[in-house]
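Chapter summary example.
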Amino acid sequence: MTTDDQTYAFKNALDAQGERLRTLETLFDPGTIRCLEARGVGPGWRCAEVGAGGGSIAAWLCHRVGPEGSVLATDLDTTVLRELAHPELEVRVHDLLTDELPKDEFDLVHLRLVLGWLGDPRSVLPRLIGALRPGGWIVAEEIDFVSAVADPRMEAEAAALFERVLHEHNAVLAAQHRFNPFYGRRVAGDLADAGLAEVGCEGRTTMWCGGEAGGRIWRLTLAQLRESMIAAGRMTASEIDEAMALCDNPRLSMLAPVVMAAWGRRGVA
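The structure predicted for these 269 residues follows.
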């Protein structure tokens, strides 16, 4: 990610973003951990967590690799990461589009919800691959809104409001921040095209309901995007406020955006 205002839409230093990051961790950490365990992450591994956000996976990696391992956690804004205290952890401000990573260093490079914000994610893959030791793994998890649809049991009026706010959310992020809401379907192919071996992927989704973590992430996201959406003429203030209220109401039920986890390995030769 770059500090240019055309990229990442959410600022880690904001109190509201802290809650949003914690909610994302609640929703996505279990699947991430299962995927990393399947890659064999263990004692002594050297890991890089790129775009580390709230730091929950960086902290998990520290426990996993133990005192003989190490974890480098990077982000544009490390406000939240600086609160972590693990002897295995190094925190570094890092712009993935312009800043280098250590060469031939890591057994694992992990990113979650990062590449889809970059405009041209393929441009950074050589840098990420170059940071791996021979035989090291990249795991990249990216969202795809193809699955984000209202539960057919929802009332028609509430479902229509949800579907509209979903469309406008995607549109404003794409127009103002270069976000690709459908990058998840491309990530495994991009890893394969970059020359990685043993490429694989899996998709994870579930039902999100109002008043629970899934509804909360929508409310927190809309709260940060509210002014941008109004200024762009995409929705009125009252429409967005109605949508945010729906996020706290059990009437909201939706199939969540699918998280596509893709992985690949740098060749040994």
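To summarize the output: Residues 172 and 228 are 8 Å apart (CA to CA).
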